Amino acid sequence: MKVTEKSGGKNDRKSGRQETASWAVLFEAVRTGDMETVQRELDRGVPVNSTNASGQTALFLCRDRSVAKLLLDRGADMEWEDHEGRTPLFAVLSTDVADLLAGRGADTNHRDREGRTPIFYARTEAEAELLLDHDAFVFYRDIHGETILVQTRDTDLFRLYLEEGADPCVCTAAGVPLLVCVAREDRRDLVELLLRYKCLRKQKLKRKERIFLKAYLSQAPCQVLLKLVEYNDMKQVRWLVELGAGLQARDRQGQGVLHKACTGAMVRYLLDHGADPLVVDNEGNTPLHMSTVCSDAEAVELLLQHGLDVNARNAAGRTPLFASYDGSATSVLLQHHADLHARDRLGYTALMRCDIGTDTMEVLLGAGLDIDARDNNGETALMHMHYDFQLEFLLDHGADINATDNKGWTVLMQMAVRPCLGRRKAELMKFLLERGADPNIKDKEGCSVLMHALRRHRYWAEIQVLADHGADARVVDKEGRGVLHHCLMYSWPEHVPDLLAMGADPNLRDAAGKTPLVLLLEKGNTKSAATLWARGARCTPEECVRACQMALENNLCDRDELQAFFRETGWDLELLLPEGTASGS
């Protein structure tokens, strides 16, 4: 509909100019999101479906969801077609507006005069995903016979359409396979995606196209081959190798095809077709290191038969035995005389891995590896474990639960300070205590596990577990500090009442002569200080004044808060610390 129809009369021309001016104002207001002007123009009677020279209504230009909602509520036609046969959903410049239109039933598969649907015009992954969420199809062809995949060169969109079922074996309007087309453009990222989605399995290639692909894949390292080997896609790998893909390809980490192979069948195929078994990656890992990670005994056996050194060390000083996650693969390595007692640069043995499985541990221990061997820090394998089944296995096989490292820490102390265990920490600590861990062993600084737990964590669960299993709250470290000192030094005053209930001494003085009460006052925590005072903690008036001066100077509290504490003590704040008194006076 046009409101600017031409007429021969003078008045008609004047009226047309006025109507043109009206819809122009409406269009500009919609484009800029000026809700007030849009409302005013519609109230004045400007038709909501007025069109511009392209046959588009104001809704085509809308970027603001609230403005779009107003237009729709006032009768805007969301299926209006412009001169190209496109609806507003083709043109909207906002995903919010597109979501509104699609949510109200706009046809996400409407086809314009070129035979294309709105998703053909998606510029971002977010726009495409929105349309897909509203049942847009990715397999339509336009009037030239091309699908959306042929017309897309954005990597993220290309991947998205393949994930949604777009056919990777399509051709361009000229009949050129898409794989050949993107290879000619040297888009290796798109070549990789197409091959990953198995386009070669049913792609029919002409002789010249096969020659081109063979030359293309053989000239440059074929990164996609590495991916397909990693995915263990044997059929695709065979296709590429037959096309001439070089087996010398390496990724950014320097890993070749044999580093990526995870099964005996794949390793055998690659070796039979000339893959170099002696390739070493940037970290010094041989294919044997990576095969043991994959836990395939057949792959390990094949690589050893092709001359790989069973005791080759990577940059970290680790042999393939350190990488084995499977008991059978570990057994194969040991049968080929892998050094059971090898140590890496940190002094770790093959047993000292937080992700090791019990079957691998059983093979290593059965072969004679020392369960209590120590690394460069004096830590045993037990101290490297993160899971209860690992701890249980080692303890069942005689691991010393109270062994100490070079700092005098036990496995219980290690567990108390480990940051990555989350809520499992209390459960693991309880397990160790029930298996005989001593909660009152002191490290070389005189600290117990209770002190370590108080210094590192504000959660009471770990402390309660220790209390329930006999942790001594009266322990004193080499600096004369008790558990209350450690608690307050690291700002966990909420634990004070519970520690007092456990028997902590509120009047213990550290090597500097400070009591827990003085530490609280220095931090300006008068509320907790009052609680401690009520439980029998004491300090001299002089100590109190010095601590309060420090808190005031550091803006940790105000005089009103101090006054509340002094009322508990019975001392006169104004007498001891007159307002305006300087520190040290």
From TrEMBL:
SUPFAM superfamilies: Ankyrin repeat. Pfam families: Ank_2. It comes from the Bacteria. ANK repeats lie at residues 283-315. Keywords: ANK repeat, Repeat. This is Ankyrin repeat domain-containing protein. It comes from Candidatus Desulfovibrio intestinipullorum. The lineage of its organism: Bacteria, Pseudomonadati, Thermodesulfobacteriota, Desulfovibrionia, Desulfovibrionales.
